[in-house]
Design goal:
Helix content: 40-55%
Structural class: mainly alpha
Number of helices: 2
Strand content: under 5%
Number of strands: 0
Distance between the termini: 82 Å
Order of helices and strands: HH
Largest sheet: none
Keywords: Membrane, Transmembrane, Transmembrane helix
Length: about 80
């Protein structure tokens, strides 16, 4: 097997012939969006976290609109 030191010392890179076999791909998922082989059922905790991720931004947006209307009304007095 050619190491990095061999390439640096030799000054030339030796390429693999086109007809040779490719190395086997890794036997692990490609990224975080792959479906796990052992998919687990959703729990109550998952539902609560999802609810918070949906409800909190909506609540914050409504609160910001109400605060903006209140401050806009308070400035005109």
């Amino acid at each position: 097997m050619t190491t990095a030191e061999d390439i640096i010392e030799g000054g030339t890179a030796r390429l693999r012939p086109a007809g040779s076999l490719m190395p086997k791909p890794a036997q692990q998922p490609a990224g975080p969006f792959e479906v796990a082989a052992e998919a687990r059922k959703p729990t109550v905790r998952d539902a609560l976290v999802t609810g918070l991720l949906v409800i909190y931004p909506a609540f914050a947006a409504v609160a910001a609109i109400i605060a903006g209307l209140f401050l806009a009304g308070a400035g005109s007095v």
